[in-house]
Design brief:
149 residues, alpha+beta, nine-stranded antiparallel β-sheet, 3 helices, 17% helix
């Protein structure tokens, strides 16, 4: 466990098992990739499910699909806060995005509860295949009672 400069905060690395558990318990994250020019970062929220160790989300034609067609490196991040336990956490996946094309997997995904929140058909399923999964947990210092709204 790494001690932060302030005694009331502690940061610890999450195990791979803890990261997988957190990924399986949540369904909203952010995908980050470079724009089509490969210059500016883009970060977009998408809801997801796990297919094995892969994060899968739905999309329409556009920048995310173009990135998938080129097996682009991406990051996918999921985080959360447990106010009662006074901890926050973050899981970061680094890997590559590609379109799901296997018919058996597509059939499974179409039967799954994965529905895109944004309007549109979202007929394309994209997968983020992890090369690296890391996570952190941090204790939250005492905050004002109205901090969380």
């Amino acid at each position: 466990m790494t001690q932060s400069p302030t005694a009331d905060k502690q940061i610890r690395d999450l195990t791979q098992e803890e990261c997988q558990t957190l990924l399986g318990q949540h369904h909203l994250g952010r995908v980050a990739y470079l724009d089509t020019a490969g210059v500016m970062p883009v970060i977009l929220p998408v809801n997801y499910i796990l297919l094995g160790n892969d994060v899968v989300f739905r999309t329409d034609p556009g920048s995310k699909l173009r990135a998938a067609l080129h097996n682009t490196p991406v990051a996918y991040e999921v985080d959360g806060v447990d106010q009662q336990l006074e901890i926050g956490w973050s899981v970061l996946i680094r890997g590559f995005v590609s379109e799901v094309t296997d018919q058996a997997e597509l059939d499974e995904l179409r039967r799954s509860p994965l529905r895109a929140w944004a309007p549109g058909a979202k007929a394309h399923f994209l997968r983020v295949s992890p090369r690296q999964i890391t996570g952190k947990q941090i204790s939250i210092p005492p905050l004002p009672s109205n901090w969380w709204g």
